[in-house]
Write a structure and sequence with these properties.
Distance between the termini: 52 Å
Number of helices: 3
Helix content: under 10%
Shape: globular
Number of strands: 30
Length: 364
Amino acid sequence: MKLGSQFSKFFTQATMFLMVSVAIGFAQKPPQPTHVWSVGPLSKGKPVVGITIGSAGATVSAPHVDSQTGSIFAATRSVVFAGDRIVLSSLVGIVPKQEYQLLSLDIKTGEIKDSRELVGFGVRAIFATNDAHVIVSGSSVLRLTPDLIDDGSFDYHATGHKNGRVQCVSPDGSTLGNATSPGYELIDAQTLKPTALTVNGVVDTSVNSKGFVTDNAHWISDYPKDTAFVTYTDATGQHLLYHGKCGGRPQFLTDDLILEPGCKNPLIVDIHGNLVRTLPLKDSFSYAGVSQNGKRFALQAGNFSGMHTLKQERFVIYSVDTGEPVTEITPDVPGEEQSWTAFSPDGSLFIVGSPLKLTLYRLP
């Protein structure tokens, strides 16, 4: 009896030790990223300026974070990796016409190597291609080298459409989505020529190399109790991938996987409509980018004091393969709604900030 009692006591202590060890392991902070450099405010030959609204209307002012990070949409479309450069686009003036400044930074040091001004172009977004070039989408579409030299372009009207809007690129950087309103086409990011897919589509939220997804196609007649839908359109037609009570702007993580960020816990589904996994989160969150190799993606977890007042933000880097967090990054100063972010193509580097301050991290 005494031996049994001692064994029972030992087993209980060992079990408690294991439970405590596991709890400590989960409580530990994830591996920390390595700070590479920080630069800012960024300008080349002129001050970076923002926008204020006064009694006389819109005017140009000193650097102002609200004019740089006030859009969640723009947060993933304002800075990119291209070869040995990091390229960013910022609004530097609005009188008499909107003026944007493109800057090309040395990836090793953050030093400004090249700059370019676009006046009246109305920059909507910039994207990285799969051959280390930069796409600038505005009143037309430009394809630039990492040092901001022209390497192709197309005008929306010259393609035979009355309208056009390029605002998405596939995760691998191979394909652009052009909403021709009405209609939709995919554009090869290297040749700037339309691919085989040309459909009478609806507004896109994300594209892959073969099609696009949207949250604007509703299947109410089939599912009258649901309010959110994710629809994938490719050359074979429309495919309902998800329907439910919650939804947002679906985003491709790879050619086959889609993030649905509109639910309390974001979902990852595949292009066949299968649920791959659910990510448990406690904070409000939004999409913050994916690496071209499809290995890592980021979500912004924000703490808001009001509807659009961001008190604190952090970026959680996830593994696409496992859905597990890899590391976290907390900017020194949060954006108004979301700081700019981008991955290097292989997912080893992550940049965050705005023209006021950009910081490059090497991820574990």
